Amino acid sequence: MLMPEPDAATLARRAEIVADLRAIVPGEGVIESEQERRAYECDALTAYRQLPLVVVLPETTRQVVEVLRYCQARTLKVVPRGAGTSLSGGALPLADAVLLGMGKFKRILEIDAANRCVVAQPGVTNLGISQAVQGLGLYYAPDPSSQIACTIGGNVAENSGGVHCLKYGLTTNNVIGVEFVTIEGEVIRLGGKHFDAGGYDLLGVLVGSEGLLGIVTEVTVRVLPTPPGARALLIGFPTMQGAGDCVAAVIGAGVIPGGMEIMDRLAIEAAEAFVHAGYPLDVEALLIVELDGCAAEVDHLIARVEAIARAYGATTCRASQSEAERLLFWAGRKAAFPAVGRISPDYMCMDGTIPRKEIGSVLLRMKQMEEKHGLRVANVFHAGDGNLHPLILFDANISGELQRAEDFGHDILRLCVEVGGVLTGEHGVGVEKRDLMDAMFNEVDLAQQQRLKCAFDASGLLNPGKVFPQLCRCAELGRMHVHAGRLRFPDLPRF
């Protein structure tokens, strides 16, 4: 995996840059020593590591503005970072880039119960928002498995999802306003407390932009009334095909669960040994379905889902009988990733999305790929919206296994596109999927996306080396030909 070559001139004036940044962000706001920078050398995609040039931890929007103006004036690259839970290398530092950490922006600025929204700084954790409004009978619906640690700013960057995104939407469906700073240091507000705005959907462009367009300094999210009740079903199947077909049948019947997750045998065994959630161990696939609403509605939906599951070969079906039991069912799912870490020295978590009807066939193809690559895979994913999270198990200490894991992951993602899906559902492209973008987009598509980036960041200073498989200058994308210092047809307007 290649990254942009570090600029020698920038590396040579590192001491000067550090001193200048200390003047902008005084005190402990600049991290310069090699030992302290080690904490920022990677995100949750730990296979790739690189020390940043320097780490800056601003505390105010004004400091963010000044840092970005300084970097833009001196053509310094900037890599934004939240909590570092990105699984695609989106926060991977560069040797000649300023790493801009937003961890000190951790205040909830306003709770507006009347408008059912919360205004928070980007360093507030996902779970922290729900906890802040819990006493009002409200909650924030998107709930990534890392919600105890991941921040709302990072959620905006990656358009994160979670268990409840099937019914209540991803981050993009729940963020109604942002404040962000451009590389030129201009503070821009998009949206607000209203749900729709006229004109171009720039808010939709910013959510999921992976730090390529600007630095988010404030987020307004909608919060929802906590459902009056919820129960979870554990449904075991003798085959993964049956579980996948059941998912499509439930949605096809018009039932939209609050959450719908699948785990295969390997993931079931690991999670049960770790959490003791009461999962059945004699099945090949476990479907966890949550139904929420009033008691009568939930009971009716449970009966409907159980009937559909039995029709598709379910051998066991157990409904939670208390709130504690429901939470225990989900505790196993939420802890599946760390649980798998107990059975393998390393794993690579992939992220691709497929049509629901293809779940069974894609998982069967994945099993066949295990033999090809000589590695095991554990599956635990958001079944309701077809968002796969295969965990490829490997040992980085064994020569060649990391490369085989990467090759395995690339084959899985190409398969997702082949069956009509996409390369990512919620983890983003980052560096992990960057060189696979041409499997999904042609040259014209990619050039158009890069032109959009140029509109926000003409110098390509924000998070370079991510998302796009080939870096181009904005002039190259515009096909501008300059001869003897003059453009052809200089009288024509250019945008």
UniProtKB/TrEMBL annotation:
Its cofactor is FAD. It holds the Pfam family FAD_binding_4. PROSITE patterns: FAD_PCMH (PS51387). It comes from the Bacteria. GO terms for molecular function: FAD binding; oxidoreductase activity. InterPro entries: FAD-bd_oxidored_4_C (IPR004113), FAD-bd_PCMH (IPR016166), FAD-bd_PCMH-like_sf (IPR036318), FAD-bd_PCMH_sub1 (IPR016167), FAD-bd_PCMH_sub2 (IPR016169), FAD-linked_Oxase-like_C (IPR016164), FAD-linked_OxidoTrans_Type4 (IPR051914), Oxid_FAD_bind_N (IPR006094). Gene3D superfamilies: 3.30.465.10, 3.30.70.2740, Uridine Diphospho-n-acetylenolpyruvylglucosamine Reductase, domain 2, Vanillyl-alcohol Oxidase, Chain A, domain 4. Keywords: FAD, Flavoprotein, Oxidoreductase. Residues 48-226 form the FAD-binding PCMH-type domain. This is FAD-binding oxidoreductase. It comes from Rhodoblastus sphagnicola.
